[in-house]
UniProtKB/TrEMBL annotation:
Its EC number is 3.5.4.16. It comes from Jiella endophytica. This is GTP cyclohydrolase 1. It is an enzyme of class 3 (hydrolase). The keyword Calcium does not apply. Belongs to the GTP cyclohydrolase I family. InterPro entries: GTP-CH-I_C/QueF, GTP-CH-I_N, GTP_CycHdrlase_I, GTP_CycHdrlase_I_CS, GTP_CycHdrlase_I_dom.
Length: 205
């Protein structure tokens, strides 16, 4: 049987979700596990703060691409060439270690009579960043969301990021960055179009 691949994680299952008090207790357990005293002055409020920070850092589960991308515009005077938003700063957390990943996204599409508000592309990147991710999955999710919502002729998504789980721990390799890129539609069919995007974002020869 073919595996069912969920493109976008579902919203949290509210019924099975631990309470805020349980989440705070879990942070307190981790504090004790690293050798700290959760009762000392500076840490008294830390479980509450961490849970509040997680609400913000992982807010992406509460939203879907449809609501983030909003409406499309059709009055573009027949413009049907590339639209590229580059150097969108993002941060996410790797799903293996829950440690930050910091990088830049470059997102391009070839309209088919419809365009999006430019800020919505950055909002989409931000939304997927506020979930646990692998860089590959996040790249594919951005491309699929744009493709499904806007139905453009082509989509290109390139992410460059530093994984702090590789620099702060483990191999402790500093300064390396990981590059992922995916192409849909006419970008997938035409290597010259891919080269154009790479040149425009400063990664091409
Ligand atoms: N493909 C991919 N791998 C990632 C990403 N983020 C982290 N990783 C890797 O996930 C792997 C997890 O490997 P494991 O051997 O299961 O875990 P580990 O013992 O903590 O691995 P080390 O980081 O090598 O110490 C590591 O090689 C990480 O570098 C990502 O976005 N994409
Ligand atoms: Zn990691």
């Amino acid at each position: 049987m073919e595996a069912v691949v969920k493109k976008f994680p579902e919203k949290p299952d509210e019924a099975g979700r631990p309470s805020r008090a349980e989440a705070e207790a879990a942070v307190e357990t981790l504090l004790r596990w690293i050798g700290e005293n959760p009762g000392r002055e500076g840490l008294k409020e830390t479980p509450k703060r961490v849970v509040k920070a997680y609400e913000e850092l992982f807010a992406g589960y509460g939203h879907g691409p449809g609501e983030v991308l909003g409406r499309v515009f059709e009055e573009v005077a027949g413009y049907n060439d590339i639209v590229l938003v580059k150097d969108i700063a993002f941060h996410t957390h790797c799903e293996h270690h829950m440690v930050p990943v910091i990088g830049k996204a470059h997102v391009a599409y070839l309209p088919d009579g419809r365009v999006l508000g430019l800020s919505k592309i950055a909002r989409l990147v931000d939304m997927f960043g506020r979930r646990l991710q692998t860089q590959e999955a996040m790249t594919a999710q951005i491309a699929d969301a744009l493709n499904d919502t806007l139905k453009p002729r082509g989509v290109a998504v390139i992410l460059e990021a530093e994984h702090l789980c590789m620099s702060m721990r483990g191999i402790r390799s500093h300064g390396s960055s990981t590059f992922t890129g995916t192409y849909r539609g006419s970008f997938a069919d035409d290597v010259a179009e891919q080269d154009r995007v790479l040149r425009l974002v400063g990664l091409g020869g």
